[in-house]
Amino acid sequence: MKSRDAPRPSLEDRTVELARWTDDRFGVAKIGKTALNKIFPDHWSFLLGEIAMYTFVILIITGIFLTLFFVPSTHEVIYHGSYLPLRGQRVSEAYQSTVDISLNVRAGLVMRQMHHWAADIFAAAVVVHLCRIFFTGAFRRPRELNYMIGLTMLILVIVNGFIGYSLPDDQISGAGLRIAFSIFLSLPIIGTWGAFLLWGGNFPGNGDIIPRFYSLHILIIPAVIAGLLVAHLGIMWHQKHTDFPGKEKTNRTVVGSSFWPTYVAKTTGYFFIIFAGLALLGGLFQINPIWLYGSYEPFKVSYAVQPDWYMGWLDGALRIMPAWETQFAGRYLISAPFYPAVVLPGLTFTALYMWPFIEARFTKENRMEHHLLDRPRDRPVRTGLGVGVLSFYVMLFLASSTDVLANTLRVSLNGVLWTFRIGTPTIPIVVGLATYQICKELSRAPGAGLRKRSNVVVRSAEGGYTTVPANIRPGDFEGEPPPESLPEEAVPRGAMGDRRRRPDEGGEEVGVGVDRTEATAVTPPRRFGGFFRPWHRPAGNS
Amino acid sequence: MSPGGEDEIGSDHMSTGGENPGGDNPGGAGSTSTGSGAATATAVEDIRLEIPVQRPRRAENFVALCFVVSVLATIGLAITYSLGGQVQAEGALLGLGLGGMGVGVAAWGKYLMPQGPFVEDRHELPKPESDRRAFGAAFSRGSVAVERRGFLGKLLGAAIGVFSIVGIFPFLRSLYNPRPGNALDFTFFRRGSRLVRIDGRPVMADDVDVGGVLTVFPEGHAGDAVSQTLLIRASSVPITTLPGRETWSPHGYLAYSKLCTHAGCPVSLYQQQVQQLLCPCHQSVFTLLNGARPIFGPAPRLLPQLPIMDNGDGFLRAQSDFQEPVGPGFWERNTSTTLNPPKTAAGQ
Question: What is the ipTM metric for this complex?
Answer without folding.
Answer: 0.81
